[in-house]
Design brief:
single chain, mainly alpha, globular
Length: 209
């Protein structure tokens, strides 16, 4: 399943960031344009589309994005792009430092420490504190442009490495109440324990499949 996903979707990975940039730079130009008119808005929308999504015909589809109309969410779409870059950089940092992420208590400790800062610092500073490097697109670009066969060989090596990693066997307590639902139907919760929720959810998945 993972291989099928990589082969079909990896070539499209750069387009996700371009779609984010589509919204970001459309909004930027809208807010920087003086004496804004209907014609100017449509022209900006078409030019942004040509630059970032390059479809066969001009489009003003950007005007369908709800963020640009709500005061509480306008002009912050760039946060999605920064988050993508930050996660890519942090993931690369962990793999270089430890060689693996799943069931790695050191990863958990570092992430927990960073999360305690919450919004105390700007995103760029938090990424630099977490990885020791300034926020940059380099890790994302490396991941987005890697050959499919290289991605799959790396994935196989990481799976094999997990056989030498001791999995967590203790009780799991996430200090929160979790409901697992399917539509309006409640499948399980962690009221009794995480393990109880896990068993019920596994049974439901088997029944559904």
């Amino acid at each position: 399943l993972y291989e099928r996903k990589v082969r079909k979707l990896q070539p499209l990975m750069p387009l996700d960031m371009m779609s984010i940039n589509f919204v970001v730079f459309f909004e930027k130009e809208i807010y920087e344009t003086t004496s804004l008119t209907r014609e100017k808005v449509l022209d900006i929308a078409r030019r942004a589309a040509r630059t970032y999504v390059d479809r066969s015909e001009d489009t003003v589809s950007i005007l369908n994005v709800p963020h640009i109309y709500s005061w509480e969410s306008s002009a912050y779409y760039h946060g999605y792009g920064l988050a993508e870059l930050g996660v890519s950089q942090w993931r690369e940092y962990f793999f270089k430092k430890y060689g693996y992420i799943v069931d790695n208590p050191n990863v958990g400790k570092e992430m927990t420490k960073m999360w305690t800062y919450a919004s105390s610092y700007p995103a760029k500073k938090l990424v630099a504190m977490a990885t020791g490097k300034k926020l940059s697109p380099n890790a994302f670009i490396r991941e987005a442009t890697r050959p499919v066969d290289e991605i799959l060989s790396t994935a196989r090596a990481r799976v094999e490495r997990l056989s030498a990693v001791k999995p967590h066997t203790g009780k799991i307590d996430l200090d929160g109440h979790i409901n697992m639902v399917h539509g309006k139907k409640k499948i399980a919760d962690n009221k009794a324990s995480f393990e109880d929720m896990d068993r019920k959810y596994r049974a439901w998945i088997k029944k559904m499949s």
